[in-house]
Amino acid sequence: MTKLIAGNWKMFKGQREAAVFCRELRDAELPADVDVVVCPPFPSLALAVQALAGTEIGVFAQNCHWAAEGAFTGEVSAPMLQELGVYGTLVGHSERRQWFGETDDLVARRVSACLEAGLHVIACVGETEAERDAGETHTVLRRQLAALEADDNLVVAYEPVWAIGTGRTATPETAEEAHERIKELLDVPVLYGGSVKPENAAELLAQPAVDGALVGGASLELASFAAICRAAAVAATV
Ligand code: 13P
What is the rounded (10 degree) CA torsion for 116, 119, 122, 124? Predict the structure, then answer.
């Protein structure tokens, strides 16, 4: 099965840097048998859509509100993103949950409204270190997934919070076990996220229940992002 590699730029790359990166990405000759997505911050979305037009690389936002419009200061809507040519959006990233008070309920509202509007969605779930240490991983995943329904345009990203930006990656076995659990609860493709790098991508992506990766830091440099895409293409053939 074709693997999906999504680069979450977080709050990096304004228009100028995004333009340079997208030009490099166009020229990088990424393998054809991997689906590639980038998730720039809002101000760089329009530029990324234009710069990557005519390629197979999809542009996703990092968040999206459930209403089409309204008095929601600081938010953007699915129709606004679609007008720019944006293909999908992340929802419920742990940084949104941790720093901006996103609850499971808000995440579920965003996910279902975005899907209904026709956006593709990567919904993020994952336990904190304290939750894993307390043996609550499965309970947390069940709670986070409870309000979501399978959909052809929905992908889940399993991002254990203790592995994000820490350099501490889940072992392939830990990721596989969590992915299997998620798939029992919701029959959708599941990406792994959390310190994915060229050095560990191949063994993570070789796991049967790992359908791709959501990459943070290593998606900001072309060399590392392209190396992860190549590892995904190889893993899909095994
Ligand atoms: P890192 O790859 O930098 O750990 O970030 C993972 C992540 O949060 C992707 O959404």
Answer: -50
Put simply, whether the predicted model's pTM sits higher than 0.90 gets the answer yes
**Gyration radius of the chain over CA positions:** 17
Return the active site residues: 93, 159
Residue keyed to tokens 């999906």: 4
- The pLDDT tens digits for 59-75 are 999 999 999 999 999 99
Pocket test for ligand 1, best of 214, 220, 221 (most atoms within 8 A of CB): 214
137-195 residue pLDDT tens:
999 999 999 999 999 999 999 999 999 988 888 999 999 999 999 999 999 999 999 99
* Cβ atoms of 236 and 189 closer than 8 Å: no
Which atom of ligand 1 is the closest one to the Cα of 196?
2
**Distance in angstroms (rounded) separating the CA atoms of residues 211 and 40:** 22
Q: What would the pLDDT profile of 182-208 be if each residue is shown by its tens digit?
A: 999 999 999 999 999 999 999 999 999
- Tell me how far the alpha carbon of residue 209 lies from the centroid of ligand 1, in angstroms: 19
Q: Are 189 and 155 in contact (CB under 8 A)?
A: yes
167 CB-near residues (< 8 Å, 6+ apart): 195
